[in-house]
Every structure is written in structure tokens, then in C-alpha cells.
Amino acid sequence: MLKGIIPYAHYLLKQTIQPGDYVVDATCGNGNDTLLLANLVGESGHVYSFDIQNQAIETTKALLKANDLHHVTYIHDSHARVDQYIPIDLHGKISGAIFNLGYLPRSDKQVITKGDSTIAAINALLTYLKKGALIVVVIYFGHEGGMDEKDAVLQYAQQLDQKLYAVLQYQFINQKNNPPFIVAIEKK
Ligand SMILES: C[S@@+](CC[C@H](N)C(=O)[O-])C[C@H]1O[C@@H](n2cnc3c(N)ncnc32)[C@H](O)[C@@H]1O
């Protein structure tokens, strides 16, 4: 009955995102989340998909092309610079964003998301959210450097004003080996 971490992250996005919406995949990696988002928003919506690795951008592009989905802007840059790429007229209009932290599976484990840029991106994205919108952050922290990012993101999320945001932590607390967990931020 309890959903696993990725199924629950996707469940949250499915509950929030409608056809025609504007959404962000902050870490496209192999493209699985971009694919979900593109299907949820449909041809009338749009996905902004970030990654600092060209390999991730190309893999995601190929996956979306294979699924005949074209309403995606691919951004080969850090999500920390989100405000350079998402038009200012989308302020208050983004309905969802997802971060999958850590490293690209089956790739260079040295290229990881980091607390400073993750928090800069979340902070910028909060200004883009419409009422009821959600940022879903899947936090992997078993790798080198992961613990620092986890602590920084949790500390940041815990101090968000409860009058403006509802912040959820979804985590299995009896699993071994630092399993991933979710922090979800809803704009009230
Ligand atoms: C866990 S993977 C993402 C998995 C992906 N969501 C999927 O469905 O396959 C994390 C990704 O974050 C990317 N990344 C690391 N730092 C980044 C940054 N500052 N901005 C954007 N992407 C970043 C990595 O290159 C890697 O591809």
C-alpha cells in the first residue's frame, strides 16, 4: 500500500499537473521524469528540462523523440541558472518541478548535484510557482558528497514559511544503506 520513492514522486506530480501546464525537470538524467512531465502536460503545455551533462541531455532528447513528444526545451546548464532560461512571464505560472539529486546512473559518479546550486534553483523556482504547485525533490545521499547536500536541502526546506508553503518529508525510516527520500514543497 505504501508507494516506493519514485512511484510516490510520480504520484505527487500526477496529482498536481494538468494538460497545458508549464513544468520543470531540474535534473533530466536519463529522461524518465521529463517523459512523465511531457505526457502529463500534453502538446498544449511545455517542459523545461535541465542537466549539466551533455550525455543526459542527448539521452533525454532521444527518449522524448522516440515517444514523439516535442514540447520540451532542453537546457544544457545548471538548474541554478533557471531564471536565465524560463521566461519572466511564467512567474507565478509553473505548476510543478522535479529534482532527482545525486549522480547519473551508470555514469561518472563524480558529477553530482550540490547543495548550493540545488538550493539556488529551488529558491528561484519558488517564485515561478502558481498556487497549489509542487516542487518534488528526490534526495539520494548514499554517495560521497550526498550527505552534505541532504543536510543543506533539509535545513533550507525546514525554514520555509509555513504560511506560504507546506513542506512534506516522505521517507522509509527502517531501510538500510541510506535509501532515497522525498521532500515536497507545495505553494499555498
Ligand atoms: C539522479 S540523476 C537524474 C535522473 C533522472 N531524473 C532520470 O529520470 O533519469 C541526477 C542528474 O543531475 C545532473 N546534475 C548535476 N548537477 C546539476 C546541476 N547543477 N544542474 C542540472 N543538472 C545537474 C547530473 O548530471 C545527473 O544527470
Question: How does this model look, in words?
Answer:
With 188 residues, the chain is α/β, with parallel strands linked by helices. It has a single domain (5-187), classed as Rossmann fold (3-Layer(aba) Sandwich), CATH 3.40.50.150. It has helices at 5-16, 32-41, 54-66, 115-128, 146-158, and strands at residues 22-25, 46-50, 72-75, 94-100, 129-139, 165-170, 181-187. It has a seven-stranded mixed beta sheet, sandwiched between helices. Helix 4 (115-128) links the parallel strand 4 and strand 5. Helix 4 packs parallel to helix 5. It is globular, with a radius of gyration of 15 Å. The model has no long low-confidence stretch (mean pLDDT 97). Bound molecules: S-adenosylmethionine (SAM). S-adenosylmethionine is lined by residues 27-33, 50-53, 56, 78-80, 100, 102, 104, 111, 113, 117. S-adenosylmethionine binds next to helix 2.
- Largest sheet, if any? 7 strands, mixed
Looking at the overall shape, the CATH architecture is: 3-Layer(aba) Sandwich
Biggest sheet strand line-up: 3-2-1-4-5-7-6
Number of domains: 1
Count of alpha and pi helical runs: 5
Name the CATH class. Answer: Alpha Beta
Q: Looking at CATH, which topology would you report? A: Rossmann fold
How would you spell out the order of helices and strands?
Answer: HEHEHEEHEHEE
Broad shape: globular
The amount of beta strand, in percent, is 15-25%
Distance between the termini: 28 Å
Q: Count of DSSP E strands?
A: 7
Radius of gyration: 15 Å
What is the arithmetic mean of pLDDT?
A: 97
The CATH homologous superfamily is named Vaccinia Virus protein VP39
Helicity range of the residues?
A: 25-40%
Q: What are the low-pLDDT stretches, counting only 5+ consecutive residues below 50?
A: none
Could you say which structural class the secondary elements and strand pairing correspond to? alpha/beta
Unique bound compounds: S-adenosylmethionine
Keywords: Methyltransferase, Transferase
Organism: Pseudogracilibacillus auburnensis
GO molecular function: methyltransferase activity
Protein name: Putative rRNA methylase
